[in-house]
Amino acid sequence: MKKAREDFDRDLGLGSRLTETRGTRFLNPDGTFNVRRKGQSVLESLNVFHWLLNISIGHFILLVASLYATVNSIFAAGYFLCGSKAFTGSVATRPLARFMECFFFSVQTLATIGYGRISPVSAPANVLVTLESLVGLTGIALVTGIVFSRFSRPTAQIIFSHRAVIAPYHGITAFMFRIANARSNQLISVNAVVNMARLEEGKRNFYTLDLERKLVTFFPLHWVVVHPIDENSPLYGWTQEQLSQSDAEFTILLTATDETFSQTVHARSSYKTAEL
């Protein structure tokens, strides 16, 4: 019973079926998991808000700009189909010039600018203006909320060394890698947990590696995380060939307090034997 309890404690929560698969990387270097969810409908699998919070700032700006141009183009097409007599103040006569005039009228309506030179007079045009005003107010509120959530959510940006090393250390050898804070903010009470998973006799076992230091109070520069390979280490006596054959993977979880927000932040990464 005690042995079974220890096996459960060593499992990182990935499940026995996944952990027994050879060649599968549990954790990518950027901290994402190699998980695909199947059996869900499209609506069940959608999580737009979470996706918008996690895409890069460049992709987010490009997405907002694309949606803005698309919405204005759709309403501009609607105004164009209403005909030139649906608006007062319209001076364009050629189709392309009329469409551009409708497009910029849509921009003014969506953003509630309303210069007043062009105004709708027909019922279809007024209905479109009413609908676009609602879309504009809703869209601005949604984008504002997402932008606020992105900026108010504290995240860690930790740089992990491209390679981990097993090298001489105080008369023995040690498993080591380096981390650094990529931002100018201050992280305090940085805690590191390093686990190793490898196949042994057809079964994947998990080990929590004892570190020279599990916690640093201040993190202004860099930190070399060290696991001394002594007689008590699961790496003791193992060669690189043996680690490669056992499909070993080293997973790292960092937990720290962001001094700016006074909130806990996390960072993850991993190393395979090819990266040693």
Write structural notes for this entry.
This protein has 276 residues and is an alpha+beta fold. It has 8 helices and 11 strands. Strands 6, 7, 8, 10 and 11 form a 5-stranded antiparallel beta sheet that branches. Strands 3, 4, 5 and 9 form a 4-stranded antiparallel beta sheet that branches. It has a two-stranded antiparallel sheet with strand order 1-2. The chain is elongated.
Q: Summary?
A:
The protein is an alpha+beta fold and 276 residues long. Helix content is 37%, strand content 27%. The longest helix has 30 residues.
Mean pLDDT: 87
Q: Beta-sheet strand percentage?
A: 25-35%
Q: SSE string, helix = H, strand = E?
A: HHHHHEHEHEEEEEEEHEE
What is the radius of gyration? 28 Å
Runs in which pLDDT lies below 50 for 5 or more consecutive residues are 1-6
* Assembly context of the chains: single chain
Number of helices: 8
What does the main sheet amount to?
5 strands, antiparallel
